[in-house]
Amino acid sequence: MSSIQERIDQYWEEVKNWTPSSAEEVEIYRLKFLVSKGILKNLFEEFKNVSVEEKRALGKVLNEFKQATEGRFNEFKDQFSEEQSKAKPSQDLTLPGPGFEFGARHPLSLVRKEIVEIFKKLGFVVAEGPEIEDDWHNFSALNFPEEHPARDMQDTFFIRKQAGNDIALRTHTSSVQVRMMENGKPPFRAIMPGRVYRNEAISARAHCFFHQVEGLYIDEGVSFADLKQTLFHFVQEMYGEGTKVRFRPSYFPFTEPSAEMDISCTICKGAGCNMCKYTGWVEILGCGMVDPNVLENSGIDAAKYTGFAFGMGIERITNLKYEIKDLRLFSENDIRFLKQFESETI
Ligand code: DAH
Q: Where does Mg(2+) bind (predicted)?
């Protein structure tokens, strides 16, 4: 065992360098050096046994060490008792927690989800595609010939203009149809929700971005009757049994024949109101039998397969369900508007 003098030197180093960062570390210090079985007491016990000659010099050193050790402890105590009393109020575990507010689903998300659920039960899967799209998928493959006036039906935000190779923000989700057919084999039964963009002035009735759900059903022997029944079923589920539908002939480059579908006004039930402009009917979607050119463009044998497609605006479907009259509300993030959908559980 090393001599008492050597051990005092060693401990002294330790005491000098002890820099506690918590009250627990102060307590460890106390237990090591100051309690009745601690280092200080031990050294004094051993001191009793040293020779008389040694006692004088060693006694002085030992006393100094004792004072230093106790002095350090008092410093630590002051430091940490101050900190503890400062910290106390925030550590009152009996106080109730601060609580937090739950958010609500956005009405467009609610309705998108509802649409998806209805079609899922009919065996439709969900597919998605890119919002930045090339000319082929947004226009050419969908039977919009170059320079054809039909391209003006949709005011496009172009990202890159390059003859035959434009890149744009997609103007509709019909582009996803093409991607799906190019990348798979029939039969296809899918719905494709997503955001679309058009270069329009923002007002209560128009926005530069909005949301659509595209539908596509391709198989052998699919007919217009399948289209009508599928969409009729959708309307009954979405707006309740007894909601009427009617189809009006229309034109889209990618369907032939094409139609627009109206439903009996959900607000006035057909009696006539502001929403339906006193006609009793409101338009909710475009649809038709997929044009054989589109099938061939996407690598599908049009002699063997037929199919239908439809596209609806989620904002429109939502407006009719919740009577929202200004499109801008959907993207303003006004908490008073959004809070109204808190109790919706879908
Ligand atoms: N893409 C059309 C639009 O944005 C909507 C549409 C109409 C989609 C008819 C279709 C369809 O699939 O068959 O206005």
A: 256
